[in-house]
Amino acid sequence: MEIKEYFSLVFSDYTLRTITLGTAILGAICGMLGSFAVLRKQSLLGDAISHAALPGIALAFIITGTKDTNLLLIGALVSGLIGTFWIRGMITKTHLKSDTALGLILSLFFGFGMLLLTYIQKQPNANQAGLDKYLFGQAATLIEKDVTLMAIVTGICLVVLLLFWKEFKILLFDADYTKTLGFNTRFIDILITFFIVLAIVLGLQTVGVVLMSAMLLAPAAAARQWTNKLSVMIVLAAIFGAFSGVFGTAISASQNNLSTGPVIVLVAAVFVLFSFIFSPGRGILFKQIRFWQNRRDLKLQKTLQFMFDIAKTHEDISHPHAIKILNNFQGFTRGSLKKMEEKNWVEVKGQKWSLTQDGYSAAKNLYTQE
Amino acid sequence: MTGTQLEIQLIAAIVAIACAIPGVFLVLRKMALISDAISHSILPGIVIGFFLTEDLNSPWLILLAAVTGVITVVLVEAIQKTGLVKEDTAIGLVFPALFSIGVILIAQKANDVHLDTDAVLLGDLTFASFDRISLGDIDLGPKSLWVMGIILSITIGLLVSFFKELKVSTFDAGLSSALGFSPVVLHYGLMSVSSVTVVGAFDAVGAVLVVALMIAPAATAYLLTSDLKKMIGLSILFGVSAAIIGYWMAHLLDASISGSMTTVLGVIFLMVYLFAPDKGLIAVMYRQKQQRTEVSLLTFLLHLNNHTEESERHINHLNEHINWQRVRSQTVLDLAQKNNMITITDSIVELTSKGKEFTDLALEYIITNKDEKIEHMKDDFFLFRG
Is A3-280 assigned to CATH 1.10.3470.10? Predict the structure, then answer.
């Protein structure tokens, strides 16, 4: 199937529509909440939580014996939350640092989950196959019910976000100040963490445990490059996330044997790469261009300063001098001379240059900025 | 116990030791998550290496994949250096992208070979002892035993020869560069060793569990000791015991060996986390409770010192004035009495001379706010440390 064909089918074909809608909504909610994770320097919390959710899924299956998505996701939510709070406990109560705590929870919970999964696989229970779709995700298994659930959660999340907007914002940028203002920082903190966990759990079915963290981070990291305003960043991240979801689904649907999760992650990575390079304010490209520009300006000013030093020893500042004497001076080029002429700082006649009145006063004000 | 079982346990133990040693330094250098990043992002390296060599245990594959690991580290540092995102975000962006490439490559090209996505996550020790090396007719043992053995000996060799450099650069990077050991060289050395170990262990325990084998023993040991040598020793001990207990638990449950090894590590960590003598959760909570009471005692004594009138020194007054609950007041009173700091006559509390001295010292501490004053006080007045 060609990509073009996909886009013509997406409105008529039930499965494609469901999956596309699902990944788009997922991308949007992840981008929204991921912005908070990135700004709170909790980027890798998402990775830890998504891995920590695995034993919850397995245990929920062992206890209930059903493969009902909602039940499994509740299990994932519970074990994800346990993981989160344990990480927090470790950081506050022991001298283990956050990286160790995250790595521990991530790997230990995941290992336990894998033990349970392999244990389930060996059980004589016909109902067990398919739990491993939570490892890498299988967008194809999304059904309308799942998408509805995602939409509802996204809606609730939006309402809460708007309701607690200023609390979230102030906690994000100045936690101590928030506390002194009398806000219950703990409650706000738990609320936002809860929603991050919720978003991760929702995404498990689609992109899987392993790649979920990228889903959370990448759109937010990309959006961060384009703005310094939280509201704009969140909207942008949601848009980037949704587009990664849609494009990822389109590309993976148009090729055989291409699982959706990794493709979505790669599309999101492309967004990040593009933003890193081309964002006008912070991007590498424009930063480099600005750097070159500044250097050229500096060289120009150095030359002007040098000319000024010569000119001020003469009664007539416009006394012509040979271009040759500039030659052993660093920063001088033919181009810079021409540019100075354009700016009306100097006049060039044959092999001689002379400073103009404009150039003289510009040089005089170079350091004093009068 | 059959020979195969013994061999599997041996491989598991060697993998655990080989992971524990670099793990200690990663944990101490606050780079634990780098191991997570490396273990994921070597996947494309392994896949490409596998296409070229068709052998998961080939040394070329290990080298190629290890290079991918080092590239990850370089990439993370490069992104971080641009200042566009923080370090953790940089890690979180790089490894899923590389891992995705690896997963897609596997799905596209290597669908019907031994390399599948489950093996990537989980590894498989069960079959490790079937792939053997033989010299002529002589059976030299399982291939992965050799691979991991060589990696382990290189690691130990490097550890022994650069122990003091590693120690200095881990705890004081500034001093280390002043002494002429380049922290950069040591950093990349450690990263290379970690990458090689991760790749070697990958086949046996998979991408995520290798992280557990690296971090968990080190973190557990870190809760028990502050001595680097002891920490390395303890992590090796934890790693090996997890390997052996884990093997038998997997045998019992008929489940994945690596998963069960990690679970054992998790249980060991949980136990130590809760019960470690000085740094465990219970010890910390207990200490914090004691400290709270000590501070309350100080407040109480200062209060007594400030007031001469009887109404302020009545026992029942405490509840109202300092806003303590009944139990709390009782604890503080008992403690003060036990230490002979106060006497109570007719429900009126009075400072003893010892209490007065203590209060004066405490005041001095509060005014000067110097730590040495309070350290001295802790020795002179034992409070809980009786």
Answer: yes
Tell me, yes or no, if A186 comes closer than 8 A to chain B by beta carbon: no
The owner of tokens 């055989």 is A256
Give A140's DSSP letter: G
Q: Does B282 touch chain A (CB under 8 A)?
A: no
Q: State whether residue A218 sits within 8 Å of chain B by CB.
A: yes
Q: Evaluate if residue B376 carries a pLDDT over 70.
A: no
CB contact under 8 A, A115 and B253: yes
Check residue A339 and give its pLDDT. 80
Q: Do B208 and A106 touch (CB under 8 A)?
A: yes
Whether residue B265 lies within 8 A of chain A, CB to CB, comes out as yes
Contact present, A108 and B262 (Cβ < 8 Å)? yes
Cα of A139 to nearest chain B Cα, Å: 15
One DSSP character per residue, A12-38 reads: T-HHHHHHHHHHHHHHHHHHHHHHHHH
Find the CB nearest A41 among B88, B216, B285: B88
Out of B85-89, B273-277, B372-376, pick the least confident: B372-376
Share the mean pLDDT of chain B: 83
How many alpha carbons fall within 13 Å on the CB side of residue A228? 3
Instruction: With CA atoms as reference, report the closest residue to A156 among A189, A183, A191.
Output: A191
Residue A229: phi, psi to the nearest 5?
A: -110, 130
How far is Cα B145 from Cα B134, in angstroms, rounded to an integer? Answer: 13
Rounded distance between C-alpha atoms, residue B35 and residue B26, angstroms: 8
State the Cα–Cα distance between residues A38 and A40, nearest whole angstrom: 5
Q: Which positions ≥6 away from B242 have C-beta within 8 Å?
A: B16, B213, B216, B217, B261, B262, B264, B265, B268
Q: Encode pLDDT of B219-255 as tens digits.
A: 999 999 989 999 999 999 999 999 999 999 988 988 8
CA separation, residue B41 to residues A347, B71, B116, B198 (Å): 60, 9, 16, 11
**Cβ distance A307 to A355 under 8 Å?**
yes
Which residues on chain A are in Cβ contact (under 8 Å) with B100? 211, 214, 261-263, 265-266, 269
pLDDT tens by residue, A57-74: 989 988 887 778 888 889
Lowest-pLDDT range, A196-205, B2-11, B367-376? B367-376
Note the ipTM here: 0.85
A93 contacts chain B (CB < 8 A): yes
Instruction: Tell me B350's DSSP state.
Output: E
CATH assignment of A285-368?
A: 1.10.3380.30
Torsion of CA B6, B10, B12, B17, to 10 degrees: 160
For residue B93, list chain A residues with Cβ-Cβ distance below 8 A: 214, 217-218, 221, 269, 272
- Check for a shared fold between A3-280 and A285-368: no
Sketch out chain B's domains with CATH numbers.
3-278 (1.10.3470.10), 282-380 (1.10.10)
Enclosing H/E stretch for B348: strand B348-351
- Report the SS3 class of residue A1: coil
Among A120-124, B57-61, B278-282, the range of highest mean pLDDT: B278-282
Residue A38 touches partner B, C-beta closer than 8 Å: yes
Chain B CB within 8 Å of residue A156 CB: no
Domain ranges of chain A: 3-280, 285-368
Burial class (CB in 10 A: 0-12, 13-18, 19+), B247: buried
Distance between CA atoms of residues B39 and B258, nearest Å = 15
Which chain A residue is nearest to residue B222, measuring alpha carbons?
A: A96
Residue A43: list chain B partners with CB under 8 A. 86, 88-89, 91-92
Place of tokens 């501490």: B365
Residues 39-98 (B) with a CB less than 8 A from some CB of A: 40, 79, 82, 84-86, 88-89, 91-93, 96-97
